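Predict both folds.
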Amino acid sequence: MRRRNESWIQDKFIQTGGIEAFMPGVVGALLEFGYKISDVRKASNLMKCAKAMSYAWERAGKRQEQIAREAEEKGYYVTAGEAYLRAALYYGRGQWSITEEENQRKIELHAKCIMCYKKMVEYCEYKIERVEIPVGDKFIVGNLHLPNTKEKVPAILFCPGMDMIKEEYPYPFNNHALKRGAAVLSIDGPGQGESNIRNIKVTLKNYDEAGKSAVNYLASRPEIDADRLGIFGVSMGSYWAPRIAAIDDRLKGCVAALGCYLSKDLIFNCAQPGFRKNYMYMSGIYNDDEFDEMAEQMTLENIAPNIKIPTLLSVGEWDELNPVEHSKKFFELLGGPKELWVWKDEFHPCGGVAHEAYPAAIDWLLAAVNGKIDPNLKEDKFIKTNI
């Protein structure tokens, strides 16, 4: 509520910048997840204000769902699967900007997202299972991507960012982990995706509990090698993933990319107000003072020394939500083997290098779970991206 008078500024930026008004460089990352540039541009052209964003993405979703159904009727199942995925992504992005409790439009858009994703799974070349994971007396939902092999495989637990849903990564038609022989479990943790629909709000500690439950689930699966488990978090997931790594010694490696490591002052008090509004919705805390009290405790400084496993940090040089100084401070505090990648000229999403950064991070993480990271590793890399 404190910053509601800034909405007119936000609307002006959206009119000129579309979705990138919220986060510079994000389009490159979306393309890596399976969005198409022509659809992103068309949707952005329809975004005349913040409220219009949801309707713009819904229109894109409807178009792709129509393409999918027509292809399906003709027996063009590859085309149908790809279009159903895009429809799921666009419907999912459409529901994301709705942050009112029990909003029927959000519920309906999210249901369309799930339905279209299920249809895509029918035509995917490998197995994707929708799984329910108990956390206390409730259940979170995940998508488990499994390689086509009878051998036990390593597995990665993926923690999406606060503006993401489990359907957005990995991209089934270019699954970086699967192509390298690993399974991926992507979850809607507390406050994310289906957890929002189920009224499972995020607290200071329950994402840790959800993560540990997800590791329990992976370790129980006969297809998974329980001795080769890693965790990968992006954006706000880069805050949650290290927290899980600090309390679960079954994990053998951690990637924390697009950092949100230390103070949340920038993201909640200085950046565009949508971030604060969204996390208030995710947490169910709408009183500013109460929210600030929680946010002040959302830092990894105290637990960093407890993270003993190999850990990779991957961030942009000009990250507007997480200055490089924060990344370097967190890097120094980590208690185990560690590596820091700073991508030149990139903002928070590292969209200009997403096609390089994601597969490289998966390579690094699988090296960690396979015991191939030097236990004395401490390396700080500045990666120049100009060609």
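Second protein follows, with its predicted structure tokens after the sequence.
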Amino acid sequence: MPGQTLLNKIWQRHVIATDDAGRDLLFIDRHLVHDGCSQAFERLELEGHDVRRPDLTFGTPDHYVPTTGGVDGFANETRRNMVVMLEENAARWKFEHFGFQSDRQGIVHVIGPELGITLPGLVLVCGDSHTSTHGALGAFAFGIGATEMAHVLATQTLWQARPKAMRIRVDGPLSASVTAKDIILHIIGEIGTDGATGHAIEYAGSAISDLSIEGRLTLCNMSIEAGGRAGFVAPDDKTIAYIEGKPFAPKGADWDMAVAFWRTCVSDGDATFDREVAIDAASIAPTVTWGTSPEDALPVTAHVPDPAQQTDVGKRTRQAKALDYMGLTPDTPLQHIAIDRVFIGSCTNSRIEDLRAAAQILKGRQVTVPTIAVPGSATVKAEAEREGLDRVFTEAGVEWRDPGCSMCVGMNGVDLVAAGDRCASTSNRNFAGRQGRGARTHLMSPVMAAAAAVEGRISDARDFEPMC
């Protein structure tokens, strides 16, 4: 048999049937739902179906929850009702639900891995585009729409066309202060937001192997921003160590069998990929975005590009439009761009490792612009407080919040960036209006966001020595 990619191995294990158009009916191992999934449950009820496998369905509110004020912090009753509806659906259909203010609540893409719900070799879906995050543990994970969610709820299956296989290798040691966020921003800057369209991305190479699991989660999270259907990293010893002992991970003899299977979840040495990209890790610097697309990514030492120098008419027009929205002038050094506020959080960068990294920059220093830190889950929040990270943030002048999607997308109606304000953000999208109407977003890593908070401008984290 010819060598198989990890994508093909997982896919073939889950095919139930194939239609005349070549689409496959896949069995879905895990279905994650959040407080934005009410339409799927309404459709399920309208069509008279039950939840087929409540034991494989897991829910948590994240998009609409307030990050201050607890139960009194909801912006309005509509948002409160979104959270209540998820709770009611969980009670009705009897699936696992980590409710608002529970000790396991959090962003769906944070709690899945940290609770051991996400496992290697699984097919996992969720009604959110950043479901690719879970691929960091060797799962094939992707976002779906409301109609597809209802189909999974009713049948625990989904019709899908198999994507092509793409491998992105990043080899060599990373430079100081270069993180997983910089790797993925660099990749998107190189291949563009459509560079992986129609593909599932497998990340490989020594730089990827050297990343922590949390770094891999950040990397896979933004695969969708490169156009990928999914992104994943083959499981290894780090993966197994990360999963062991987690609440929903296999136990006893099941654990031994699971580990034996997980070790087969790798691409064969002679596997053929439809597309391959190679990147030298040494070429990656701390990276920030300047425009309204994740592909508008440059090293922090660079200057705002001049659209007039762009030979492609379409790109020239897009860049000019982006500069107009962002209120930037060509050739301005990125480090001269003033910041109005900073957001440290989101499903991309709100895990304990991210908070530790930001705290290293902030310890002993003071922020000069409004800054909020939003942990990705109640588990992360509790651990951060055990380690005293919350005190580091608050002593630096940072507002320490409760878990939620928060200012990444502003759907809770409170955590928004004002029109015209510029935000240094650890989130995943910088589209026009993403963080609020007229908001201007610069994507960067937690250490870069912390540096920007201190300086009040885009800054190079490499210039910051730890204070102790």
